[in-house]
Amino acid sequence: MENFFNYISKPVTEDEFSLWFESNNIIFERLEVYQDFVVSLVLMIMDTYLGDDGDENTETKIRLTKDEKDDHFEWCWNKVVNNFSKENILIEQDGEHKTFLKDFIFEIYYEQKNKYIKDSMIKFFQDVFKLGTVITKSDLDLITTIYKTFNRSTKFRFT
Q: Cα separations (Å) of 52 from 26, 60, 147?
């Protein structure tokens, strides 16, 4: 239990951080692009989702089906991929990067009943990528997973 607690809460040292990035071949500039993509996707989802907000006391009590939530995610995903392609950042439409984010977002946002948790999703992703702050091993694992999955699915076209 102590190891798990340290994994999710104990900050890594600056040397551990540098060694981790170097050993995983993480390039900061690419990480920033992947961060921009993830944050853009999350904002698009949160700004355009018209389903229930997890609160049983809402006036409309709109409930969307799984297919409607899938359609919303797909629309947001395609919109953000298209926006990035205009900047010569070519992100594949399908792959493990999409599956990873879709599964995560479904659990934390679409299927979440707690409004506070749903509303904190954008802050969560902004904080994970905020490298100048306290970073834990858990954060490093998430950053690395996002980086590696996107790195395999992204091409940069230089003109």
A: 38, 8, 31
